[in-house]
Amino acid sequence: MAIGHIAPRRLADTIVEQLETMILEGTLQPGERLPPERVLAEQFGVSRPSLREAIQRLTAKGLLVSRQGGGNFVTESLGASFSDPLIPLLEARPEAQRDLLEFRRTLEADCAYYAAKRATEVDKAQLQKVYEELQGCYARDTDRDLEAEGVADARFHLAIAEASHNVILLHTIRTLFNMLKDHVVTNIGGMYAKEAETRLGLAEQHRLLFDAIMDGRAEDARELAGTHIEYVQQVLSERSENHRRLERAMRRDKLTRS
């Protein structure tokens, strides 16, 4: 039996694998700037030429982009699965918005379940941070920033996805939120603006979900996440129906006056 030589592994291969893992697991996020080469080489304990070779290979793969004088960045469009022209079509159709929320319900229930089972102390610290930021938005009775509330809400759900330690769920959720960022923020902001009861309901749901994940109650977390998205569906459906009724009434009034 002929036995071939085993080729030694290049150091750059190991660096590429490490950086790919960091991108895949979400440690390095889309659009994030990598530390300077000198710092990164020291952190990895490798030479700068080997690191530079790894970065060039990841750039060729489309995972990194190098900017003249600006450093190296994770590609911003990483994981994008929908083209831009499709976004306005989805945003303009109520049935597509319903489908989006149904999809979110399935994904986020699983994210919450696995987050409750797998969250590390580091994950819990990050979840605590974004949860407190969201609570800080709720606490502002005056001078409220609805867009900031929407962004804080999205960050909370993304932190849950990160804590699930399922890279497919994480990147799907992140792509979904990035794809329809304005839509998500607008909807959430619109819900908060609707009435105090709705805002209090969302705050309570987030508190219960946060507690379930932090306590490791996986089944409760799954159920609470699903219930939360169902509540969002219900409120937005009512809001959309009320808007249609108002438009109908205004058309009738205009016809009567003419």
UniProtKB/TrEMBL annotation:
One of its GO terms (molecular function) is DNA-binding transcription factor activity. Residues 9-77 form the HTH gntR-type domain. Coiled coil: none annotated. The keyword NADP does not apply. The keyword Transcription applies. It holds the Pfam family GntR. Transcriptional repressor for the pyruvate dehydrogenase complex genes aceEF and lpd. This is Pyruvate dehydrogenase complex repressor. The gene is pdhR.
